[in-house]
Amino acid sequence: MTTLACYANTTACRKRDWAACGYGWLATAPVGVFWLVWLVYGLRCLQRHKATNSWFDVDKIHDPVAQGMAVALSQRRSASLRRSHLQRYMKFCAMSSEWLAFSYTPLVITFKVAGVSSDANVLFLLNVPSELINVVSTLVWGCLLLGLHVWKAWSRRRSPLILRFIHPLTFDVFYIPLISTLGRLGSCPEGFDHIVLPGGATCECVDRMGLFWALGLSGFVILYASALYFKMHVEPLARTTVFRFQTNFQIIMVMARTLNPIMSMLVSDLDAVAHPVIALALTLGFFFCVAFLLYYVYTTQPCIGSGRLPNNIRAVTFSSSCYTSLCALGFLLADKSITSLYYSLAPLPLVWVLAWHLNERRARLFHVPNLPIWDLLLERSVRSKTVGTIAALYVDAINLPASSFEGIIAQLEKIVKRSAPDELPCRAYALRALWFCHVKGFCLQKGTVGQQDDSAMVPFKLWYKDREAGASSHTLLQKQTKVHRITQLEDVAPHTTMMWTPPLEPRAGWRRVVFFLLDVSAQSLQSRTRTRTRMSIQMLSAATNYALVRLREKHWIVKVETSDAAVFSCTTLYNSALEVLAQSCAMGDVTAMQSTAVFLLQWYKAKYLRLSKLVYLHVLTTIVATSDARLVTHAALTLYRLVLDNVLPLDLWRQNTTHLNFFISALGHAAASTVLRCATVLNLVFQAAADDPRTNLFLLVTPASRATIHAALHRWHHVYDVSVLLEDLCIRLYNLEVAHQTKRKPSPIKRSRKTSFNNVLQWFGARKRSITNAMVDQAAVIVRSAESRMSRRSIARERGGESRLRIESRRLSAPLNNLMGLRPLVAHRSVKQSVGYFLSHVSSNGRRDNATCSPSSTKVAPAIVVAPKPPPPARCPSLRAVNFATIDATARTVVRLDRLTFVTPAIVAEINRRRGMRKQLLDLLRSAQSLQSEPNANSNNAVAPQARTRNLLDEALTKAGHLASSAPECAIADYVAHGLPPELLAFFDTHVAPRLLHATTPATAKTHVFTWLFAYAKQLVGLRRG
């Protein structure tokens, strides 16, 4: 019998004997802990970084502003690019190691099944066979890194050595060998050389495994967490690299690079022959992972900047891994012949070439050449030119040679004057950069440009901010490029170093190799046939035409010119800005719209630009149509105040429909206050439009704006003041469209058809009235005959029969009333009869009769009583109540209510339902309040009337509570808190709210009631605090 070797006192421990010793679980537990740490911490980083929100947003990943800022930050006084290229080559080495590791990982399983030696696994993981050498190298490198960090903290100095060399080497170049060494140390896989402790014990001894596992797991966690932190927070701030990967993708890549050694450890301890299903599942799971990464890389091209080459390398890496995974799956599912596997891997180089060629075409769409700013401005690509313009705006000009000033400014002026229609964002950023170019001469004369007529201009300081919108989230660079009032300029001497050029004569020996690795320019690597000359950038005369000034800790290139020339240049910039704003609005370029409008707004706020009312309206409405929620809130508030103060006349909106439709887009804002202000202004505009008989609604509102209004009506059903204003807006649109249809003259054929149809309706109406009168007369005869035959003792019982007959009469006439869309007329003799009639027409679920709320009744002109509105603003007395227009018999011949487009019959029915519910609640509360205050002492027999009054009061309160808690999408809770008069609100709090707390309803109704009570209490507290 073979002796089990599980403990250190034996000659040589064997891991395969652990199961026989009762420690079979220990063989897989360490690897399971590694898997758990890898998955949980990686997903946690993705969740904290909110990576899932922008995985496939190509526009957000390749944001020209972020790329331009990166180019601006990478500019240095010295034109030598040694450091940048050394880091570039280190990243290429790291990606090459990924190429080998990812391609070989699926083959580990196949070699395990085929029984082939796994020595190649060590080589592809960039390790050496001796585990001792690997561990010692890892410890030495870790001690070096720790010592440098301790020295940095002790000396309190920035260490470029750590940021530019040690960190990239640790977390890029050597990451795979380091993480695989720590994984092997902590999991002790079979088939590898292990460290031998003094006494002959290894990690394969059960009583020594804990030591190796603790050391390996600790190092694994530290290295894995440090790599993720470096990719998330340190590397994005680097200023010396010409390309960088998206942060979300960097997190995924750290997890993917860590997955390779973990999977190799798991396969090493797996009996793939005995468990082929597990081997197949591992291979299939790895294939899906790399297939997803390949699709992601091809779709988004996650390397931004000069990232064509890195994106191609990553595409080749994942396509190679996908192909080897498919070969491994074929090997596991087919004959499992190692020779056939080798034959299937033969076309792998063709796969690399094909993947590179296919990805090259898409990578060029997002590629920005690694060129200086002036060369980027000369590029034909719109993306490259835009990135160069943004870099010229954000760059600190002290880092540029003085000889490049004239070329940059000349090219920016050329972009502003002559650009293609798809270069509008480029022109917008160039306008801002050129304003700072003329700021020195312009500020000396302390003048203004723009509208010179004082009566037509908008006064300064008419820009209002909403404090609830929050603080600005702009970066330091964006704040430095903001147009502001300049009080002081500081002249700075420019840097006169010429552009660095490589020597013409090659160096000899080993110096030639060093020169190639460190000093060769990226431009020569990308295109050796470029014929562009740099002679113009070396002109020394440029230093006399341009200078440097310092504003807000940033240096700007300014032109040496007279004050009159500066004013003329700024006037030209203003005209060009208006042209760019008009073109961007016509083309729907939101980026150019926002950039140009904000530039003009900042210019106006600095009191250097005088804007007319029309131009200011154009600027503000353009900002409203952009995607910056904070700016939209401020612009909507400003327009709201200007309209209420009569600074912007209402006719100005109707004369410029584009501005009106831009402003309607504010109804889609997330803040209720912004939607409220927008709805108020729109009601004023369309109220004035209704007073003008020449108004054409189809020219005022576009289909997109119409859809925005409908969406806002359905979205803000729970906020009373917003809902009422949106309902008023829809009613005004309805009336305008009806008025527009009444102006049309129907054809003779249609007129005859409608006349005959009206005759039929009149016949039905007369027939209905005759049937109703006959039924009422018959009921009266029956009642009188019954009363004459009864004695006094049976009068009370016969009165109950009379009431039942009246109810039957109403039931018989109800179908005809519903058919004709009419409501029964009842004479309200007293408050008691009024409440009794109203309660009889409220169903058990608290809703109105279908005769007034159903969509079928909307084909007749709606006629409802408008619910109480919130008080209008103090300076807006012209906002009047509105109701649906009444359509007479003549207008019905031309008006087709079923073909209305701006306010459909379904929306009309919804508005009727909402207002009807509020009106019912208001009438119930008023009637109940009157019943409570009605005296009963003047009656001879006060007991019976008091009981009837109490019953009616109790029924009214119950109906009011049920209506308040069950009316859907009518803003009842907000209506109670904000729309009821103070006396009715106090009555509701005292008598109705307690009934909702003690109501005995089903479980679902209870939940709804409690939800309503919570919303009502929240609104009430907010009202009373205000």
Give the key terms.
1026 residues; mainly alpha; three-stranded antiparallel sheet; two-stranded antiparallel sheet; 42 helices; 2% strand; globular; transmembrane; transmembrane helix
Secondary structure layout plus pairing:
Elements: H1 25-48, H2 58-61, H3 64-73, H4 82-114, H5 119-124, H6 131-155, H7 160-173, H8 175-187, H9 206-234, E1 243-245, H10 247-268, H11 276-300, E2 303-305, H12 308-333, H13 338-344, H14 348-363, H15 373-377, H16 382-394, H17 405-417, H18 424-437, H19 439-445, E3 449-450, H20 476-480, E4 490-492, H21 510-519, H22 522-526, H23 542-545, E5 546-551, E6 554-559, H24 563-587, H25 590-605, E7 609-610, H26 613-624, H27 629-644, H28 650-655, H29 657-664, H30 672-691, H31 697-700, H32 703-715, H33 720-742, H34 748-789, H35 795-820, H36 831-840, H37 850-853, H38 905-933, H39 943-966, H40 972-978, H41 982-997, H42 1003-1025
Parallel strand pairs: 3-7
Antiparallel strand pairs: 1-2, 4-5, 5-6
- Poorly predicted regions: 78-83, 497-542, 779-874, 937-941, 1000-1010
Question: How much strand content do the residues show?
Answer: under 5%
Percent helix: 55-70%
**Mean residue pLDDT:** 77
Helix tally? 42
Instruction: Report the principal-axis shape.
Output: globular
Major sheet description: 3 strands, antiparallel
Based on secondary structure, the structural category is mainly alpha
Total strands: the figure is: 7
CA gyration radius, whole angstroms? 40 Å
